[in-house]
Design brief:
The structure holds 3 protein chains of 3 kinds. By secondary structure, chain A is of the alpha+beta class. Chain A is about 15% helix and about 45% strand. Chains A and B meet through strand 3, strand 5 and helix 1 of A and helix 7, helix 9, helix 11 and helix 12 of B.
Chain lengths: ~70, ~350, ~325
């Protein structure tokens, strides 16, 4: 039920956006976030929940460090 | 880089019970075969975070009535179509002329409503905080567009009170795998009071195998170290405070209410419902508390809270199978019983 | 309802559309029964097709009907020879759709080398629905060629002829309004099968992977043979767009329907040759060896997941999703 997948914003029309998921284009709700074309986003049930960072490397590095300190 | 996989596989300490609250985590765990990658001393228990599974039969009966009402169409996610109320499901009622439409997104209701203004479209609004945010966005759009023929029949649940119920009424859980997408909306801070009050660690996790394994590792380490805090293992999507716009929008349209949970009865302040000022968009969601188990020996209530494993229910695999489900745990693909049955889990 | 009452209007419909597209010497006789040459051993099959929408990316209900029937025959090792087609048309079916469907059936039949030798048309009240029932006849080769789901042996290799889920994804995308360029994989597989037979590969079992998906078919092999099958997720070909759709809708390619894919269990020493045959055949470019028959718990199908875990697969329960064939 909480299935959410990452996609890429192609265009914005007010509070709606067109998002691409590996070649699938879906018209989704964008009213919960501030997005621009090119952003990576997390989409659940046709609605963008969050903007995702472009560069995950730093985030993962911090995460691994936290795990090592346990 | 820590070899967390090896650590989990080789763990030989005291037996540990970890509950994954979210149904989508249950499904991911089964899908990726994670149980075969961890020590048998680490037990994974499915919790009550499957919205279809915890919905009471009275809610489904109300949907069925609505679907049979002239000029009314029930719009729903696919998951709900096969769940039985006190006697039948939305799928059953379709053959009697019940109007039921399956959609991918609640937002699809907008187009349906514009196309047929003389009909009333009622969305079967179930879900946790993740989906409540979507319903709030739907409310926003439909009011902005001046649409008056959409209603919500809500069975919205929130995480904290049900986790509290498991901790205080049942106990026996050493750590929680916290729902990743709920946390995107609410923020990981949602679980801090629970960690503190019940002295139990939480690890917010994503849904990929690697993310779940890292979170399990973090939980095992925190349990070993007797730590009870909330760790965020999904930092790409989850922050401590969550999505503030979404939280505000939820707050605008919905308020907390008592809710009935299959297996746990009515839990105070554990649900959400449209505020009175938006009452005209509600299809009769308040006070839907009655629950009739399909079969007197159905143990969905104990399975949902992790008190029993699916195979410990007397009906599991015998009378109750995905082809002939007796309770919601078997109907929903994210239900513990369906997941265990379809994947022949032995854990 | 003038059409369907047996008078001139019905024969007009038949002759103007179906007979024209399916034209062959047998059908042209317009007798009550088709009389055709036979063989010592025949394979026979029947099926009905009720998919909506009638027309979709990569095909239509007609092409589905011909290919589906041809493939059922081919999977028993038979050369598909003759088809019959019964149509039930609801009032309101567009003539352009009928033309298109009949034309694509004719094309598919020619490609598969089959003759449509008999047909029937009924028109009923309704809203433009169209249903097709077929029966098919094929000739089994002389000799003792026989395949069966119960013939698998430990050590056998499992081959899949191409990407999973394309047809199912096409139908669902159309129904749920998701835009992509996924096409149904609807195709006749007789060429692929006869290439395998000609190569003298030891084939234990063959099946086309239709409703219920790969997992359902392989689970049947495991149970019928009383063996343990193990397949690897990383070896199973799935198009990126289909993976994307599965992510959005929460689907599993292992349980999705296909209309132009087959799975075969062959003797270990023949696996590479079988793979080469498939890859050189039309519709087999993406063929892969995906697993093997191992020593293990009998009647089970195991999946080695991308994460390195093991998951037990069972057959598809219930209808799963809306009917897609």
């Amino acid at each position: 039920m909480c299935v959410a997948v990452p996609g890429k914003v192609i265009s914005i029309q007010g509070t709606r956006a067109v998002v691409d998921f590996r070649g699938n284009t879906v018209h989704v709700e964008a009213g919960l976030v501030k997005v621009k074309p090119g952003d990576s986003v997390l989409v659940h049930a046709g609605c963008i929940l969050q903007v995702l960072p472009e560069e995950e490397a730093n985030i993962l590095a911090d995460l691994f460090e936290e795990l090592e300190n346990l | 880089m820590i070899d967390y996989r090896n650590y989990l596989k080789e763990y030989d300490g005291p037996p540990i019970r970890i509950m994954e609250v979210c149904g989508t985590h249950t499904a991911s765990i089964a899908h990726t075969g994670i149980v075969s990658l961890i020590s048998s001393k680490i037990q994974l228990i499915s919790g009550p975070g499957c919205p279809v599974c915890v919905t009471v039969t009275e809610y489904i009966d109300r949907l069925i009535d609505l679907s049979l009402t002239p000029d009314t169409v029930v719009v729903t996610f696919g998951d709900m179509i096969r769940v039985t109320g006190s006697s039948k499901s939305l799928q059953d009622v379709r053959s009697e002329g019940g109007q039921v439409r399956m959609v991918y997104s609640p937002m699809d209701t907008l187009a349906l409503a514009k196309l047929e203004p003389a009909k009333t479209f009622v969305f079967a609004a179930i879900g946790f905080e993740t989906t409540t945010a979507v319903y709030a966005a739907l409310m926003d759009e439909m009011i902005r567009e001046g649409l008056t023929n959409i209603r919500l029949l809500t069975s919205l649940k929130t995480m904290p009170r049900c986790i509290e119920w498991v901790c205080s009424m049942q106990g026996g859980i050493d750590g929680f795998l916290a729902p990743g997408h709920v946390s995107v909306i609410t923020g990981s801070s949602l679980f801090e009071p629970l960690a503190r009050d019940f002295h139990v660690p939480f690890a917010v996790a994503g849904f990929e195998a690697e993310q779940i394994l890292m979170a399990l590792f973090a939980l095992v380490k925190m349990i070993e170290g007797k730590e009870s805090r909330v760790m965020n293992l999904y930092p790409a999507a989850v922050t401590r405070d969550g999505n503030l716009t979404a939280k505000d929008m939820i707050h605008t349209y919905f308020e907390s209410c008592d809710a009935a949970w299959r297996g746990m009865g009515v839990i105070a302040e554990s649900g959400m419902v449209l505020r009175d000022i938006y009452g005209k968009y509600d299809a009769g969601s308040r006070n839907l508390y009655c629950d009739h188990s399909h079969h007197p020996m159905c143990r969905c209530d104990k399975v949902i809270t992790g008190a029993l494993k699916p195979k410990e229910c007397p009906l599991f695999g015998k009378i109750c199978t995905p082809q002939a489900p007796q309770g919601a745990c078997m109907v929903s693909a994210e239900g513990s019983c369906c997941s265990y049955f379809v994947n022949r889990r032995n854990d | 309802m003038a059409h369907g009452s047996g008078g001139k209007a019905t024969s007009d419909l038949i002759s103007s559309i179906f007979a024209r597209h399916f034209d062959n010497p047998v059908l042209a006789k317009m007798e009550d029964a088709a009389v055709v040459p036979g063989a010592a051993r025949l394979a026979m099959t029947t099926d009905s097709f009720v998919v909506t929408p009638l027309v979709f990316a990569g095909g239509d209900i007609g092409k589905l009907a011909v290919c589906g029937t041809v493939n059922d025959l081919a999977m028993s090792g038979a050369k598909p020879m003759y088809l019959t087609c019964g149509f039930i048309l609801e009032e309101g079916v567009e003539t352009e759709d009928l033309e298109r469907i009949a034309a694509s059936m004719s094309t598919a039949a020619k490609e598969a080398g089959v003759l449509i030798v008999a047909g029937d048309t009924k028109v009923i009240e309704g809203k433009g629905g169209l249903y097709i029932n077929t029966s098919g006849v094929g000739f089994l080769p002389e000799g003792d060629f026989e395949v069966s789901a119960s013939f698998l042996r430990t050590g056998d290799m499992i081959l899949l002829s191409g990407t999973l889920g394309d047809h199912h994804a096409t139908i669902l995308s159309a129904r749920m309004g998701i835009e992509n360029t996924i096409q149904s994989d609807c195709a006749p597989l007789h060429g692929m099968v006869s290439a395998l037979q000609d190569s003298k590969v030891h084939i234990r079992a063959m099946r086309d992977v239709t409703r219920g998906g790969l997992a359902t078919v392989l689970h049947e092999f495991a149970v019928a043979s009383n063996k343990c099958l193990r397949i690897e997720e990383r070896l199973i070909p799935v198009k990126d767009q289909v993976k994307g759709l599965c992510g959005i809708l929460g689907l599993d390619p292992l349980y999705m329907a296909n209309e132009g894919k087959m799975v075969a269990a062959v003797a270990k020493e023949d696996a590479e040759l079988a793979l080469s045959c498939l890859r050189k055949s039309p519709y087999g470019e993406a063929a892969a060896i995906i697993g093997e028959v191992i020593s293990g718990e009998e009647g089970t199908l195991l999946l080695l997941t991308e994460a390195g875990g093991v998951r037990m697969l069972t057959e598809l329960y219930g209808e799963g999703l809306p009917r897609i064939c």
